Amino acid sequence: MRRISWMLAMVMCVTLLLAGCGKKSADDVVKDLSDVVSDLNSYHGTALMTLHTGDTPQEYKVDISYRKPSYYRIAMTNEKKDVTQIVLRNDEGVFVLTPSLNKSFRFKSDWPNNQGQVYLYETLVRSIIGDASRQLASDDKSYVFDVAANYNSHALVRQKIWLSKNNYAPTQVQVSDANAKVVVDLKFDQFAFDTKFDKDSFDMERNMASGKTGKGNEGTPSAGAVDSSGQLDPTGTIDGTTGVISGEQGQVQGTAGEKAQQPSGEASMDGAATGDTSKPDSADATGSTDTEAKPDTAGNTETQQQTPGASDAATGTSAGTDAAEAVMGEFGLIEPSYTPAGVQIKDTPELEDNGTHAVMLRYSGTYNYTIVEARPKDRAVSLAAGELVDIGGSFAVLTGSEQQTMTWMNDGIEFRITSADLPVSEMIQIAASIQDQSGK
Predict the structure, then answer these.
(1) H or E segment to which residue 126 belongs
(2) Cβ atoms 103, 229 nearer than 8 A
(3) Which of 114, 188, 297, 434 is a good FRET partner for 121, with 20 to 30 A between their CA atoms?
(4) Angle subtended at Cα 191 by Cα 213 and Cα 204, rounded to the nearest 5 degrees
(5) pLDDT computed for residue 431 by the predictor
(6) What pTM was computed for the model?
(7) Can you say whether the dihedral through the CA atoms of 200, 205, 208, 214 is positive or negative?
C-alpha cells in the first residue's frame, strides 16, 4: 500500500514538473511578441467594438487591414446609422473617407506611428512590451495581459488584452477608466497574419467606390470608378460652400459669414467684410468646382481654381452628389452632452444661411472654444499637415499649432471645434459626446 502511494506521489510530482516547464512566463511571451512584430508583413481582422461612453452602448463593426511597410485600411461601420467611415494610409498620405456622403479628408501624418489605436496589432503589442509592470494571466486558449492604456485620452487608464496561445493573434481587448469601468470592448471575429491583398486594396479611389456599393467593410474591396471628393485645407478649417481658403492661419472666407476662432477664444463674425462670400457661378451650377490649396515656399496657402472638366478628369464624376444633397437640410442645434469643468455655453450667434445650414456654439470659462456645425456640399482640395484622432466610432482630423481645429463628419454633418487653449483630450471627449446627439 505504501509502495502504491509512493508511486502515485512520484507520478504527480513529475506531472507538475512537466506542466511547470511548459508554462511560459510574461518575459517569454514578450520576447515572442517582439519576434512576431519584427517579422510582420501583413494582417487582416474583423471585430465588434462596443463603446460604453454614453447612456446606451454604441456598436461598430471594425475591419482592419495592414500591409508592410506602412499601408493601412480601417473601415468602421455603424450599422444602426448605416454609415461606414474608412481611414486609409498609402503613399499619397492619410485619408478619412465617408463614401456614402462623397466626403474625404486628405492630410500628411505619421499616423499611426504617433499614437495608439486599440484595433491595431502593433499598438497592442507595444502596450505590452512597454509596460514594465505588466501582469500576465492565462486561460485555456489565451494569454491575458493587464497593462496601462496608452491612448490619447485621460479617461482610458488600463486595458486587458487577450492573445491566442496558438499564434499570439488578438481575440479581445477591454479598455477601462479610473473606476475600472470598461469603456471600450473590442471582440475579434477573426484575425489572420500574412494576408494577401489586391494590388489596389489601399487605393483611395477604389475604397471610395467600394464604400458606395455596400462593400466598405471588405478587406479587399472591389474596384470601380470614384466620385469627386475634396479634402482638408491647411488652416484646419473647411469652406464647404465656396471652396475659398484664406492664407491667414485659422481663417476661412465666406463660410456662413463667420471666421474661425481667434487665439483669444472668441469667434469673429465679420466674414462678410472679406468680400469673398459669393459662391462661384460654376460651383453653383454644377457643384463640381474644386479649389486646390498649395503651400508656397514661405508656408502660405495659394489657392488655384480648377475647371469642372479638370476636376472630373482628376477625381471622377460627381454621381454621388445627388445622394449627398438628398440629406441636406436643417438639423437644428446639436449640443454636446459633455462640457469641461468651469466652462459654460456663452451664446449661439445666428449665421447667415448660405445653403449649409451652419450653426455656431460659443463656450467660455476655463477654456474658450467654438463649435461650428454645417452640411457642406463641396470641399476644398489640399494636402496639409495634420493628426488623425479616434473620437470613438469615428475619426477626426486635428490641425493647427497655437490654435487647433478638430474636424469630423457625423450623419452628414461636419463639426469643427476650434480653440487656442482647449486640450486635445478635452476636444476628444466633447466630440465623442456629440456622436449620439440629435438636433434641437
Answers:
(1) helix 121-130
(2) yes
(3) 434
(4) 35
(5) 92
(6) 0.69
(7) negative
